[in-house]
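Quick one: structure for this chain?
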Amino acid sequence: MLASRSSARFFFSIQDVQENGGPRRLVDIIQSVPQLSRNYFQSPSQKALFRGIHTNPSLMSEVIRSYSLSSTNLHKAHLAFNQIEPPTLVVWNHKIRGFSQSDNPVEAIHMYIHMHHQGITGNNLTLIFLFKACARIPDVVFGRKIHVHALKLGFESYLYVSNALIHMYWMCGQLGFAQKMFDAMLDRDLVSWNSLICGYSQCNKYKEVLRLFYAMREANIKADAVTMVKVILACSHLGDWEVADSMIEYIKENNVEIDVYLGNTLIDIYRRRSLVELAQGVFDRMQERNTVSWNALIMGYAKVGNLTVARKLFDNMPKRDVISWTTMITSYSQTSLFADAVKLFQEMMAAKVRPDKFTVTSVLSACARLGKLDVGWAVHDYICKHGVEADIYVGNSLIDMYSKCGLVEKALEVFQDMKDKDSVSWTSVISGLAVNGFADSALNLFSQMLKEGVRPTHGTFVGILLACAHVGFVNEGLDYFESMEKVHGLVPEMKHYGCVVDLLSRSGNIDKAYEFIKKMPVAPDVVVWRVLLSACKLHGNVALAEIVTRKLLELDPCDSGNYVLLSNTYAGADRWDDAIKMRELMEDGDVQKPSGSSSIEVGSHGIKLLL
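Got it. Here's what it folds into:
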Protein backbone atom coordinates (compact mmCIF):
# COMPACT_ATOMS: atom_id res chain seq x y z
CA MET A 1 0.00 0.00 0.00
CA LEU A 2 2.87 2.35 0.93
CA ALA A 3 4.66 1.50 -2.33
CA SER A 4 1.53 2.23 -4.32
CA ARG A 5 1.00 5.67 -2.74
CA SER A 6 4.72 6.57 -3.13
CA SER A 7 4.84 5.56 -6.79
CA ALA A 8 1.63 7.44 -7.55
CA ARG A 9 2.93 10.56 -5.84
CA PHE A 10 6.20 10.25 -7.80
CA PHE A 11 4.31 9.69 -11.11
CA PHE A 12 2.26 12.87 -10.84
CA SER A 13 5.24 14.89 -9.54
CA ILE A 14 7.30 13.87 -12.56
CA GLN A 15 4.52 15.02 -14.87
CA ASP A 16 4.61 18.36 -13.04
CA VAL A 17 8.41 18.61 -13.57
CA GLN A 18 8.06 17.92 -17.29
CA GLU A 19 5.36 20.54 -17.67
CA ASN A 20 6.33 23.24 -15.15
CA GLY A 21 9.57 22.50 -13.33
CA GLY A 22 13.22 21.78 -13.92
CA PRO A 23 16.14 19.85 -12.48
CA ARG A 24 16.06 21.63 -9.10
CA ARG A 25 12.42 20.62 -8.69
CA LEU A 26 13.39 17.02 -9.51
CA VAL A 27 15.87 16.96 -6.64
CA ASP A 28 13.12 18.05 -4.25
CA ILE A 29 10.78 15.35 -5.53
CA ILE A 30 13.30 12.52 -5.26
CA GLN A 31 14.24 13.54 -1.73
CA SER A 32 10.56 13.77 -0.75
CA VAL A 33 10.00 10.07 -1.47
CA PRO A 34 12.61 8.29 0.71
CA GLN A 35 11.06 4.82 0.22
CA LEU A 36 11.34 5.12 -3.56
CA SER A 37 12.98 2.32 -5.57
CA ARG A 38 12.47 0.73 -8.94
CA ASN A 39 10.62 -2.15 -7.34
CA TYR A 40 7.71 0.18 -6.62
CA PHE A 41 6.98 0.71 -10.30
CA GLN A 42 4.94 -2.18 -11.59
CA SER A 43 3.26 -1.06 -14.79
CA PRO A 44 5.20 -0.75 -18.09
CA SER A 45 4.30 2.94 -18.41
CA GLN A 46 5.58 3.72 -14.90
CA LYS A 47 8.81 1.80 -15.56
CA ALA A 48 9.32 3.59 -18.87
CA LEU A 49 8.79 6.99 -17.25
CA PHE A 50 11.20 6.17 -14.39
CA ARG A 51 13.83 4.93 -16.82
CA GLY A 52 13.43 8.01 -18.99
CA ILE A 53 13.99 10.43 -16.11
CA HIS A 54 17.09 8.65 -14.82
CA THR A 55 18.76 8.59 -18.21
CA ASN A 56 18.02 12.24 -19.03
CA PRO A 57 21.24 14.28 -18.49
CA SER A 58 19.51 17.64 -18.26
CA LEU A 59 17.01 16.45 -15.64
CA MET A 60 19.54 14.42 -13.60
CA SER A 61 22.37 16.97 -13.69
CA GLU A 62 21.18 18.88 -10.64
CA VAL A 63 20.49 15.62 -8.77
CA ILE A 64 24.06 14.45 -9.39
CA ARG A 65 25.46 17.86 -8.43
CA SER A 66 23.56 17.82 -5.16
CA TYR A 67 24.73 14.31 -4.30
CA SER A 68 28.33 14.97 -5.43
CA LEU A 69 28.72 17.88 -3.03
CA SER A 70 27.74 15.67 -0.09
CA SER A 71 30.42 13.24 1.11
CA THR A 72 27.75 10.92 2.52
CA ASN A 73 25.81 10.81 -0.77
CA LEU A 74 28.70 10.56 -3.22
CA HIS A 75 27.90 6.90 -3.87
CA LYS A 76 24.35 7.89 -4.84
CA ALA A 77 25.74 10.38 -7.34
CA HIS A 78 27.78 7.55 -8.84
CA LEU A 79 24.70 5.31 -9.16
CA ALA A 80 22.70 8.09 -10.82
CA PHE A 81 25.62 8.93 -13.10
CA ASN A 82 25.80 5.34 -14.38
CA GLN A 83 22.15 5.56 -15.55
CA ILE A 84 22.70 8.56 -17.84
CA GLU A 85 23.04 7.90 -21.56
CA PRO A 86 25.31 9.68 -22.39
CA PRO A 87 26.57 12.00 -19.59
CA THR A 88 27.20 15.58 -20.63
CA LEU A 89 30.31 17.61 -19.75
CA VAL A 90 28.31 19.36 -17.03
CA VAL A 91 27.49 16.00 -15.43
CA TRP A 92 31.12 14.84 -15.71
CA ASN A 93 32.23 18.04 -14.01
CA HIS A 94 29.82 17.45 -11.14
CA LYS A 95 31.34 14.03 -10.54
CA ILE A 96 34.95 15.20 -10.90
CA ARG A 97 34.27 18.09 -8.53
CA GLY A 98 32.68 15.76 -5.97
CA PHE A 99 35.64 13.40 -5.99
CA SER A 100 38.18 16.26 -5.91
CA GLN A 101 36.90 17.36 -2.50
CA SER A 102 36.19 13.85 -1.16
CA ASP A 103 38.39 11.61 0.98
CA ASN A 104 39.50 9.87 -2.21
CA PRO A 105 40.54 12.69 -4.61
CA VAL A 106 42.44 10.30 -6.91
CA GLU A 107 39.03 9.15 -8.20
CA ALA A 108 38.63 12.60 -9.79
CA ILE A 109 41.66 11.82 -11.96
CA HIS A 110 40.23 8.40 -12.85
CA MET A 111 36.95 10.03 -13.85
CA TYR A 112 38.77 12.54 -16.04
CA ILE A 113 40.77 9.78 -17.79
CA HIS A 114 37.53 7.85 -18.39
CA MET A 115 35.87 11.02 -19.73
CA HIS A 116 38.85 11.70 -22.00
CA HIS A 117 38.58 8.18 -23.43
CA GLN A 118 34.92 8.90 -24.17
CA GLY A 119 36.09 11.71 -26.44
CA ILE A 120 34.89 14.54 -24.22
CA THR A 121 37.23 17.51 -23.79
CA GLY A 122 37.07 19.30 -20.47
CA ASN A 123 36.61 23.01 -19.92
CA ASN A 124 38.09 25.49 -17.49
CA LEU A 125 35.97 24.14 -14.61
CA THR A 126 37.18 20.60 -15.25
CA LEU A 127 40.77 21.78 -15.00
CA ILE A 128 40.17 23.69 -11.78
CA PHE A 129 38.67 20.60 -10.12
CA LEU A 130 41.52 18.41 -11.38
CA PHE A 131 44.20 20.79 -10.10
CA LYS A 132 42.47 20.74 -6.72
CA ALA A 133 42.51 16.92 -6.73
CA CYS A 134 46.22 16.85 -7.69
CA ALA A 135 46.98 19.28 -4.87
CA ARG A 136 45.22 17.13 -2.30
CA ILE A 137 46.78 13.79 -3.34
CA PRO A 138 49.46 15.31 -4.02
CA ASP A 139 50.38 14.33 -7.60
CA VAL A 140 52.50 16.90 -9.41
CA VAL A 141 53.20 14.52 -12.33
CA PHE A 142 49.56 14.29 -13.38
CA GLY A 143 49.13 17.96 -12.47
CA ARG A 144 51.75 18.90 -15.06
CA LYS A 145 49.98 16.79 -17.67
CA ILE A 146 46.76 18.66 -17.01
CA HIS A 147 48.72 21.91 -17.13
CA VAL A 148 49.77 20.96 -20.68
CA HIS A 149 46.10 20.33 -21.55
CA ALA A 150 45.26 23.78 -20.17
CA LEU A 151 47.88 25.33 -22.44
CA LYS A 152 46.60 23.48 -25.51
CA LEU A 153 43.00 24.40 -24.77
CA GLY A 154 43.91 28.05 -24.07
CA PHE A 155 42.66 28.02 -20.49
CA GLU A 156 45.94 28.76 -18.67
CA SER A 157 45.38 32.50 -18.91
CA TYR A 158 42.01 32.21 -17.16
CA LEU A 159 42.35 33.81 -13.72
CA TYR A 160 40.76 30.99 -11.72
CA VAL A 161 42.71 28.34 -13.63
CA SER A 162 45.98 30.18 -12.92
CA ASN A 163 45.06 30.47 -9.23
CA ALA A 164 44.33 26.74 -9.11
CA LEU A 165 47.71 26.04 -10.73
CA ILE A 166 49.56 28.15 -8.15
CA HIS A 167 47.78 26.30 -5.37
CA MET A 168 48.48 22.90 -6.92
CA TYR A 169 52.19 23.54 -7.44
CA TRP A 170 52.94 24.75 -3.92
CA MET A 171 50.83 21.99 -2.36
CA CYS A 172 53.05 19.55 -4.28
CA GLY A 173 56.18 21.26 -2.98
CA GLN A 174 56.97 23.00 -6.27
CA LEU A 175 57.17 26.60 -5.06
CA GLY A 176 59.39 27.57 -7.99
CA PHE A 177 56.70 26.60 -10.50
CA ALA A 178 54.07 28.35 -8.38
CA GLN A 179 56.15 31.55 -8.44
CA LYS A 180 56.64 31.28 -12.23
CA MET A 181 52.87 30.90 -12.75
CA PHE A 182 52.29 33.93 -10.53
CA ASP A 183 54.91 36.04 -12.35
CA ALA A 184 53.46 35.15 -15.77
CA MET A 185 49.93 36.22 -14.83
CA LEU A 186 48.76 39.41 -16.56
CA ASP A 187 45.86 39.78 -14.16
CA ARG A 188 45.97 38.87 -10.46
CA ASP A 189 43.35 39.05 -7.74
CA LEU A 190 43.56 38.65 -3.96
CA VAL A 191 43.30 34.86 -4.28
CA SER A 192 46.40 34.84 -6.51
CA TRP A 193 48.45 36.68 -3.90
CA ASN A 194 47.06 34.65 -1.00
CA SER A 195 47.74 31.36 -2.78
CA LEU A 196 51.44 32.14 -3.19
CA ILE A 197 51.73 33.67 0.29
CA CYS A 198 50.19 30.50 1.79
CA GLY A 199 52.66 28.42 -0.20
CA TYR A 200 55.70 30.25 1.14
CA SER A 201 54.26 30.16 4.66
CA GLN A 202 53.64 26.41 4.45
CA CYS A 203 57.26 25.90 3.34
CA ASN A 204 58.58 28.03 6.24
CA LYS A 205 59.92 30.74 3.91
CA TYR A 206 58.77 33.58 6.13
CA LYS A 207 60.91 36.33 4.63
CA GLU A 208 59.33 35.58 1.25
CA VAL A 209 55.90 35.92 2.86
CA LEU A 210 56.76 39.44 3.98
CA ARG A 211 58.32 40.26 0.59
CA LEU A 212 55.11 39.24 -1.17
CA PHE A 213 52.98 41.21 1.28
CA TYR A 214 54.95 44.40 0.59
CA ALA A 215 54.68 43.78 -3.16
CA MET A 216 50.96 43.21 -2.74
CA ARG A 217 50.58 46.58 -1.02
CA GLU A 218 52.50 48.28 -3.85
CA ALA A 219 50.05 46.69 -6.29
CA ASN A 220 47.18 48.31 -4.33
CA ILE A 221 45.67 44.95 -3.38
CA LYS A 222 44.00 45.12 0.02
CA ALA A 223 44.82 42.18 2.28
CA ASP A 224 42.15 40.13 4.02
CA ALA A 225 42.16 37.94 7.14
CA VAL A 226 43.78 35.03 5.27
CA THR A 227 46.69 37.22 4.21
CA MET A 228 47.22 38.70 7.64
CA VAL A 229 47.19 35.33 9.41
CA LYS A 230 50.17 34.24 7.30
CA VAL A 231 51.94 37.60 7.63
CA ILE A 232 51.55 37.71 11.43
CA LEU A 233 52.73 34.11 11.69
CA ALA A 234 55.78 35.00 9.58
CA CYS A 235 56.64 37.83 11.97
CA SER A 236 56.22 35.50 14.93
CA HIS A 237 58.53 32.85 13.50
CA LEU A 238 61.12 35.49 12.59
CA GLY A 239 60.82 37.08 16.01
CA ASP A 240 60.40 40.48 14.36
CA TRP A 241 57.99 42.13 16.77
CA GLU A 242 58.46 45.60 15.32
CA VAL A 243 57.20 44.44 11.93
CA ALA A 244 54.46 42.46 13.67
CA ASP A 245 53.22 45.63 15.38
CA SER A 246 53.19 47.46 12.04
CA MET A 247 51.10 44.64 10.56
CA ILE A 248 48.65 44.91 13.42
CA GLU A 249 48.40 48.64 12.67
CA TYR A 250 47.69 47.75 9.03
CA ILE A 251 44.79 45.55 10.20
CA LYS A 252 43.33 48.46 12.19
CA GLU A 253 43.88 51.11 9.53
CA ASN A 254 42.41 49.02 6.73
CA ASN A 255 39.52 47.60 8.76
CA VAL A 256 40.54 44.04 8.01
CA GLU A 257 37.82 41.79 9.39
CA ILE A 258 39.15 39.82 12.34
CA ASP A 259 37.66 36.36 11.94
CA VAL A 260 38.28 33.53 14.39
CA TYR A 261 41.54 32.48 12.70
CA LEU A 262 43.08 35.95 12.62
CA GLY A 263 41.84 36.59 16.14
CA ASN A 264 43.50 33.40 17.39
CA THR A 265 46.72 34.35 15.62
CA LEU A 266 46.76 37.77 17.28
CA ILE A 267 46.07 36.27 20.71
CA ASP A 268 48.91 33.82 20.17
CA ILE A 269 51.44 36.47 19.14
CA TYR A 270 50.53 38.59 22.17
CA ARG A 271 50.78 35.48 24.36
CA ARG A 272 54.29 34.74 23.12
CA ARG A 273 55.32 38.29 24.07
CA SER A 274 53.58 38.08 27.48
CA LEU A 275 51.26 40.97 26.45
CA VAL A 276 48.28 39.29 28.01
CA GLU A 277 46.20 42.47 28.36
CA LEU A 278 46.34 43.00 24.59
CA ALA A 279 45.50 39.34 24.04
CA GLN A 280 42.50 39.75 26.33
CA GLY A 281 41.40 42.79 24.31
CA VAL A 282 41.44 40.82 21.05
CA PHE A 283 39.57 37.97 22.73
CA ASP A 284 36.88 40.31 24.05
CA ARG A 285 36.34 41.91 20.61
CA MET A 286 36.04 38.63 18.72
CA GLN A 287 32.48 37.97 17.55
CA GLU A 288 33.22 34.28 17.10
CA ARG A 289 35.50 32.21 19.34
CA ASN A 290 36.44 28.55 19.32
CA THR A 291 38.32 26.28 21.72
CA VAL A 292 41.64 27.44 20.25
CA SER A 293 40.78 31.03 21.25
CA TRP A 294 40.19 30.05 24.87
CA ASN A 295 43.26 27.81 25.02
CA ALA A 296 45.54 30.52 23.63
CA LEU A 297 44.36 33.05 26.21
CA ILE A 298 44.69 30.52 29.05
CA MET A 299 48.27 29.84 27.93
CA GLY A 300 48.93 33.58 27.93
CA TYR A 301 47.84 34.04 31.53
CA ALA A 302 49.66 30.88 32.59
CA LYS A 303 52.87 32.16 30.99
CA VAL A 304 52.83 35.36 33.07
CA GLY A 305 52.05 33.34 36.21
CA ASN A 306 48.45 34.48 36.65
CA LEU A 307 46.95 31.04 37.23
CA THR A 308 43.92 32.52 39.00
CA VAL A 309 42.63 34.15 35.80
CA ALA A 310 43.81 31.16 33.74
CA ARG A 311 41.75 28.82 35.91
CA LYS A 312 38.74 31.14 35.77
CA LEU A 313 38.87 31.08 31.96
CA PHE A 314 39.25 27.31 32.04
CA ASP A 315 36.19 26.94 34.27
CA ASN A 316 34.14 29.27 32.03
CA MET A 317 34.99 27.54 28.75
CA PRO A 318 31.88 26.36 26.87
CA LYS A 319 33.80 23.30 25.72
CA ARG A 320 37.20 21.94 26.78
CA ASP A 321 39.52 19.69 24.81
CA VAL A 322 42.63 17.78 25.86
CA ILE A 323 44.79 20.87 25.19
CA SER A 324 42.69 22.90 27.66
CA TRP A 325 43.16 20.34 30.43
CA THR A 326 46.84 19.76 29.64
CA THR A 327 47.60 23.49 29.63
CA MET A 328 46.24 23.94 33.16
CA ILE A 329 47.82 20.73 34.49
CA THR A 330 51.21 21.65 33.00
CA SER A 331 50.94 25.21 34.34
CA TYR A 332 50.25 23.94 37.86
CA SER A 333 53.14 21.50 37.63
CA GLN A 334 55.61 24.09 36.30
CA THR A 335 54.75 26.53 39.11
CA SER A 336 55.23 23.83 41.79
CA LEU A 337 51.48 23.55 42.48
CA PHE A 338 51.83 19.81 42.19
CA ALA A 339 48.78 18.90 44.29
CA ASP A 340 46.56 21.10 42.08
CA ALA A 341 48.02 19.43 38.97
CA VAL A 342 47.20 15.95 40.28
CA LYS A 343 43.72 17.00 41.42
CA LEU A 344 42.87 18.53 38.03
CA PHE A 345 44.13 15.42 36.27
CA GLN A 346 41.78 13.32 38.37
CA GLU A 347 38.92 15.65 37.38
CA MET A 348 39.95 15.25 33.74
CA MET A 349 39.73 11.48 34.05
CA ALA A 350 36.32 11.78 35.74
CA ALA A 351 35.17 13.92 32.78
CA LYS A 352 36.27 11.05 30.49
CA VAL A 353 38.68 13.22 28.50
CA ARG A 354 41.45 11.07 27.05
CA PRO A 355 44.88 12.42 28.07
CA ASP A 356 47.75 12.56 25.59
CA LYS A 357 51.50 12.13 26.07
CA PHE A 358 51.90 15.77 27.14
CA THR A 359 49.23 15.41 29.84
CA VAL A 360 50.70 12.26 31.36
CA THR A 361 54.24 13.70 31.27
CA SER A 362 53.12 16.71 33.33
CA VAL A 363 51.08 14.74 35.85
CA LEU A 364 53.86 12.17 36.30
CA SER A 365 56.24 15.03 37.08
CA ALA A 366 53.80 16.26 39.73
CA CYS A 367 53.46 12.76 41.18
CA ALA A 368 57.26 12.51 41.39
CA ARG A 369 57.50 15.74 43.40
CA LEU A 370 54.68 14.72 45.73
CA GLY A 371 55.75 11.08 46.06
CA LYS A 372 52.26 10.02 44.94
CA LEU A 373 53.12 6.52 43.86
CA ASP A 374 49.46 5.39 43.74
CA VAL A 375 48.46 8.07 41.21
CA GLY A 376 51.68 7.62 39.22
CA TRP A 377 51.13 3.89 39.06
CA ALA A 378 47.51 4.42 37.93
CA VAL A 379 48.71 6.79 35.18
CA HIS A 380 51.22 4.18 34.01
CA ASP A 381 48.47 1.56 33.96
CA TYR A 382 46.24 3.90 31.91
CA ILE A 383 49.04 4.50 29.40
CA CYS A 384 49.46 0.76 28.88
CA LYS A 385 45.76 -0.10 28.67
CA HIS A 386 44.60 2.79 26.48
CA GLY A 387 47.49 3.05 24.05
CA VAL A 388 48.66 6.54 24.98
CA GLU A 389 51.78 7.28 22.92
CA ALA A 390 54.69 6.45 25.21
CA ASP A 391 57.55 8.40 23.66
CA ILE A 392 60.94 9.11 25.22
CA TYR A 393 59.53 11.95 27.34
CA VAL A 394 56.80 9.76 28.83
CA GLY A 395 59.35 7.02 29.53
CA ASN A 396 61.73 9.46 31.18
CA SER A 397 58.88 10.85 33.32
CA LEU A 398 57.97 7.33 34.46
CA ILE A 399 61.60 6.61 35.38
CA ASP A 400 61.79 9.88 37.34
CA MET A 401 58.48 9.23 39.12
CA TYR A 402 59.33 5.66 40.17
CA SER A 403 62.84 6.71 41.25
CA LYS A 404 61.61 9.59 43.40
CA CYS A 405 58.95 7.35 44.91
CA GLY A 406 61.62 4.79 45.86
CA LEU A 407 60.53 2.07 43.45
CA VAL A 408 63.81 1.95 41.55
CA GLU A 409 63.27 -1.63 40.31
CA LYS A 410 60.19 -0.43 38.42
CA ALA A 411 62.14 2.54 37.05
CA LEU A 412 64.78 0.14 35.73
CA GLU A 413 62.05 -2.03 34.19
CA VAL A 414 60.59 0.99 32.35
CA PHE A 415 64.09 1.91 31.15
CA GLN A 416 64.76 -1.58 29.80
CA ASP A 417 61.37 -1.67 28.01
CA MET A 418 61.95 1.65 26.21
CA LYS A 419 62.56 1.21 22.48
CA ASP A 420 64.26 4.59 22.16
CA LYS A 421 66.44 6.15 24.84
CA ASP A 422 68.28 9.44 25.05
CA SER A 423 70.88 10.75 27.48
CA VAL A 424 68.10 11.89 29.82
CA SER A 425 66.79 8.32 30.01
CA TRP A 426 70.20 7.00 31.05
CA THR A 427 70.81 9.88 33.45
CA SER A 428 67.41 9.49 35.12
CA VAL A 429 67.82 5.80 35.86
CA ILE A 430 71.49 6.19 36.92
CA SER A 431 70.55 9.00 39.31
CA GLY A 432 67.57 7.01 40.57
CA LEU A 433 69.75 4.02 41.33
CA ALA A 434 72.34 6.24 43.01
CA VAL A 435 70.02 8.10 45.39
CA ASN A 436 68.16 4.93 46.30
CA GLY A 437 71.34 3.14 47.42
CA PHE A 438 72.03 1.01 44.34
CA ALA A 439 75.42 2.59 43.67
CA ASP A 440 77.03 -0.48 42.07
CA SER A 441 74.14 -0.81 39.62
CA ALA A 442 74.39 2.90 38.80
CA LEU A 443 78.10 2.62 38.02
CA ASN A 444 77.61 -0.52 35.94
CA LEU A 445 74.84 1.17 33.95
CA PHE A 446 77.11 4.18 33.35
CA SER A 447 79.76 1.84 31.90
CA GLN A 448 77.09 0.33 29.63
CA MET A 449 76.01 3.82 28.58
CA LEU A 450 79.55 4.66 27.46
CA LYS A 451 79.90 1.35 25.62
CA GLU A 452 76.74 2.07 23.64
CA GLY A 453 78.16 5.42 22.57
CA VAL A 454 75.69 7.60 24.46
CA ARG A 455 77.30 10.91 25.42
CA PRO A 456 76.91 11.65 29.15
CA THR A 457 75.63 15.01 30.33
CA HIS A 458 76.33 17.19 33.35
CA GLY A 459 73.36 15.53 35.03
CA THR A 460 74.80 12.09 34.43
CA PHE A 461 77.96 12.97 36.33
CA VAL A 462 75.95 14.31 39.25
CA GLY A 463 74.36 10.87 39.53
CA ILE A 464 77.72 9.10 39.22
CA LEU A 465 79.39 11.28 41.86
CA LEU A 466 76.43 10.71 44.21
CA ALA A 467 76.75 6.96 43.68
CA CYS A 468 80.46 7.06 44.52
CA ALA A 469 79.76 9.15 47.63
CA HIS A 470 77.14 6.67 48.87
CA VAL A 471 79.51 3.67 48.71
CA GLY A 472 82.71 5.50 49.60
CA PHE A 473 84.43 5.12 46.19
CA VAL A 474 86.58 8.21 46.72
CA ASN A 475 89.33 7.54 44.19
CA GLU A 476 86.85 6.34 41.55
CA GLY A 477 84.72 9.43 42.14
CA LEU A 478 87.71 11.72 41.71
CA ASP A 479 88.62 9.90 38.50
CA TYR A 480 85.10 10.37 37.14
CA PHE A 481 85.29 14.07 38.05
CA GLU A 482 88.62 14.46 36.24
CA SER A 483 87.24 12.68 33.16
CA MET A 484 84.39 15.15 32.77
CA GLU A 485 86.49 17.78 31.02
CA LYS A 486 89.46 15.70 29.88
CA VAL A 487 87.50 12.86 28.24
CA HIS A 488 83.98 14.14 27.67
CA GLY A 489 84.56 17.87 27.19
CA LEU A 490 82.18 18.86 29.99
CA VAL A 491 83.27 21.80 32.16
CA PRO A 492 82.33 21.01 35.79
CA GLU A 493 79.59 23.16 37.27
CA MET A 494 79.02 24.21 40.88
CA LYS A 495 76.87 21.15 41.57
CA HIS A 496 79.74 18.85 40.58
CA TYR A 497 82.15 20.63 42.91
CA GLY A 498 79.55 20.24 45.66
CA CYS A 499 79.34 16.50 44.92
CA VAL A 500 83.14 16.13 45.22
CA VAL A 501 83.13 18.00 48.55
CA ASP A 502 80.38 15.65 49.71
CA LEU A 503 82.35 12.64 48.43
CA LEU A 504 85.46 13.65 50.41
CA SER A 505 83.52 14.75 53.50
CA ARG A 506 81.48 11.54 53.80
CA SER A 507 84.67 9.50 53.84
CA GLY A 508 86.14 11.67 56.62
CA ASN A 509 88.58 13.53 54.38
CA ILE A 510 87.43 16.93 55.63
CA ASP A 511 90.77 18.65 55.30
CA LYS A 512 91.08 17.39 51.71
CA ALA A 513 87.58 18.69 51.05
CA TYR A 514 88.63 22.12 52.38
CA GLU A 515 91.77 22.13 50.23
CA PHE A 516 89.65 21.12 47.22
CA ILE A 517 87.35 24.10 47.84
CA LYS A 518 90.27 26.51 48.07
CA LYS A 519 91.59 25.29 44.70
CA MET A 520 88.27 25.61 42.89
CA PRO A 521 88.53 27.76 39.71
CA VAL A 522 85.22 29.40 40.61
CA ALA A 523 84.11 30.96 43.88
CA PRO A 524 82.24 28.33 45.93
CA ASP A 525 78.61 29.10 46.70
CA VAL A 526 76.79 28.67 50.02
CA VAL A 527 75.73 25.11 49.17
CA VAL A 528 79.35 23.95 48.84
CA TRP A 529 80.35 25.57 52.11
CA ARG A 530 77.28 24.21 53.88
CA VAL A 531 78.11 20.65 52.77
CA LEU A 532 81.51 21.05 54.41
CA LEU A 533 80.01 22.61 57.54
CA SER A 534 77.63 19.67 57.93
CA ALA A 535 80.60 17.32 57.67
CA CYS A 536 82.46 19.32 60.33
CA LYS A 537 79.52 18.87 62.67
CA LEU A 538 79.38 15.14 61.92
CA HIS A 539 83.09 14.61 62.55
CA GLY A 540 83.45 17.18 65.37
CA ASN A 541 85.95 19.40 63.59
CA VAL A 542 85.24 22.63 65.47
CA ALA A 543 88.22 24.60 64.17
CA LEU A 544 87.31 24.10 60.53
CA ALA A 545 83.64 24.63 61.34
CA GLU A 546 84.46 28.13 62.62
CA ILE A 547 86.35 28.97 59.42
CA VAL A 548 83.54 27.68 57.24
CA THR A 549 80.87 29.52 59.24
CA ARG A 550 82.68 32.84 58.78
CA LYS A 551 82.62 32.22 55.01
CA LEU A 552 78.94 31.39 55.12
CA LEU A 553 78.03 34.46 57.16
CA GLU A 554 79.82 36.62 54.61
CA LEU A 555 77.83 35.06 51.78
CA ASP A 556 74.47 34.58 53.49
CA PRO A 557 74.17 36.25 56.92
CA CYS A 558 70.41 35.82 57.08
CA ASP A 559 70.26 32.03 56.87
CA SER A 560 69.59 30.58 60.30
CA GLY A 561 70.98 27.21 59.26
CA ASN A 562 74.52 28.56 59.28
CA TYR A 563 74.22 29.60 62.94
CA VAL A 564 72.44 26.43 63.99
CA LEU A 565 75.00 24.13 62.37
CA LEU A 566 77.94 25.80 64.17
CA SER A 567 75.98 25.96 67.43
CA ASN A 568 75.30 22.24 67.21
CA THR A 569 78.96 21.61 66.39
CA TYR A 570 79.97 23.48 69.57
CA ALA A 571 77.39 21.50 71.54
CA GLY A 572 78.76 18.24 70.18
CA ALA A 573 82.21 19.27 71.46
CA ASP A 574 80.74 20.25 74.87
CA ARG A 575 81.50 23.92 74.22
CA TRP A 576 78.13 25.03 75.55
CA ASP A 577 79.06 28.68 76.10
CA ASP A 578 80.02 29.03 72.44
CA ALA A 579 76.82 27.21 71.41
CA ILE A 580 74.72 29.69 73.41
CA LYS A 581 76.67 32.64 71.97
CA MET A 582 75.84 31.52 68.45
CA ARG A 583 72.14 31.32 69.34
CA GLU A 584 72.32 34.81 70.87
CA LEU A 585 74.16 36.14 67.83
CA MET A 586 71.34 34.82 65.68
CA GLU A 587 68.76 36.58 67.86
CA ASP A 588 70.70 39.84 67.95
CA GLY A 589 70.89 39.80 64.17
CA ASP A 590 67.11 39.19 64.00
CA VAL A 591 67.73 36.02 62.00
CA GLN A 592 64.48 34.07 61.87
CA LYS A 593 64.49 30.31 62.11
CA PRO A 594 61.69 28.93 59.91
CA SER A 595 59.23 26.53 61.48
CA GLY A 596 59.64 22.91 60.57
CA SER A 597 56.78 21.09 58.91
CA SER A 598 55.74 17.61 57.91
CA SER A 599 53.11 16.45 55.46
CA ILE A 600 50.98 13.35 55.74
CA GLU A 601 48.20 12.06 53.49
CA VAL A 602 44.88 10.94 54.94
CA GLY A 603 42.69 9.40 52.26
CA SER A 604 42.84 11.77 49.31
CA HIS A 605 43.69 14.83 51.40
CA GLY A 606 47.14 16.14 52.28
CA ILE A 607 47.63 17.54 55.80
CA LYS A 608 50.58 19.76 56.68
CA LEU A 609 51.71 19.80 60.33
CA LEU A 610 53.84 22.68 61.65
CA LEU A 611 56.44 21.60 64.21
